[in-house]
Structure to design on (430 residues):
DNA sequence: CGGTAATCTAGAACAAGTTTCAGACTTGAT
DNA sequence: ATCAAGTCTGAAACTTGTTCTAGATTACCG
């Protein structure tokens, strides 16, 4: 009964924090450990994708005991989702510096997503590990996955140039995110070409014009 | 190196067939075994979702040795994707009997998908197992996943009432499928409500009007 | 500084997916 | 009916994610 075990109550275990806002403030050494772990995770993922991220190897690479790794990230999926948060933050920073240049919101969003897509293409294995973890995550990872989703939403709204989206616009953004994730999956598993992903993104971005024809 | 091992060449092993068209014709007893396995799989999945489908249990429930189970379905994901093909075929049959009644293609598609969604809601654990397997599937399962995708496409085109879709319409259908899968995932992992899934489906279905305004 | 609670380490142990193997059983062709 | 080839079985072994434990280390409080 591993499913039950997972939800079983535990004693104190601080290092598992929800997101950017540190839950329990980490000491410097702890912060360093956390960084080492995330770095090792990304490195192994870059090599061979989801399967190559083996918890024992991550622990060894980051010079941390296996038990400690599990204290910081309660499962492999948690670890990879955290890795994704990390990468997303990077990307958001990069994107901010060079905002998309399109005339319409739809163009800017699809330009932004295609830029992100090209970044992922440079590290396809890493992309594989992160995206598979994201879609495989069960309820126990919901808060973290949700955080990734919110982050993505912010990036898209940024590209649209919106501060105060209407509900209809938020629906469109959600649908764009769905398409983005799922299209990535089909590409990663070799069932769709890069060109097809591009078309799908451009197609779904037209929904934006549908919800804000005044732009 | 399990990744390599998985792709290693094997000797003869017929029962693994691609889809409906039997690759090597199965004997009656083999067909029966296959049915028993799929039935056990669906049954266990209905109880506890992805995690509850344990290969040893499936083997025991279906009165087949573990090795045989693996000869029929080379991995747990293959098994669950095959289970999904099975259920999809059912559903397609059911849908055919009561075609959607909406006036526009968009309405009919979203009506169809919502009907499928309600069916999934009746067996949320089974849905969980199938959808998680589908999105977690790696390249080794691509043919089977693709078959599921094609089947889904047929269902949607059916609902649209189209025989000969344009490329633009096919893109729209792909985007709808992306949204469908991803929205299901967010619902299954408790990050979106049923109402939200409904809205997302209706939103994406508007893309149809965009690609065939003459309908 | 001393003590105590929390944290970390090494390593064993466990769970479930997957592989392997020897021997029994089926099938299909002669 | 018989033989060869292919299948199925039961059981053990192997892999990797996850949990557990006992003892060392560290952080913090007075």
């Amino acid at each position: 009964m591993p499913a039950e075990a997972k939800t079983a109550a535990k004693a104190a275990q601080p290092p598992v924090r929800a997101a950017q806002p540190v839950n329990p403030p980490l000491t410097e050494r702890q912060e360093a450990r956390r960084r080492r772990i995330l770095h090792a995770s990304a490195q192994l993922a870059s090599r061979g994708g989801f399967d190559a991220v083996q918890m024992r190897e991550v622990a060894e690479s980051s010079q941390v005991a296996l038990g400690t790794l599990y204290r910081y990230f309660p499962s492999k999926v948690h670890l990879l989702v955290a890795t994704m948060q990390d990468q997303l933050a990077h990307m958001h920073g990069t994107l901010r510096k060079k905002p998309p240049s399109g005339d319409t919101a739809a163009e800017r969003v699809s330009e932004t997503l295609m830029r992100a897509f090209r970044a992922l293409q440079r590290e396809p294995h890493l992309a594989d590990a992160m995206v598979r973890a994201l879609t495989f995550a069960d309820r126990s990872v919901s808060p973290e996955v949700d955080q990734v989703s919110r982050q993505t939403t912010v990036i898209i709204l940024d590209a649209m140039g919106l501060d105060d989206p209407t509900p209809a616009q938020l629906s469109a953004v959600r649908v764009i995110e769905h398409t983005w994730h799922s299209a990535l999956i089909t590409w990663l598993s070799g069932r769709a070409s890069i060109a097809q992903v591009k078309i799908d993104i451009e197609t779904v971005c037209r929904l934006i014009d549908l919800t804000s024809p005044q732009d």
Notes: Residues 2, 12, 14-15, 30, 33, 64-68, 71 of chain B lie near DNA strand D (CB under 10 Å from a C1').
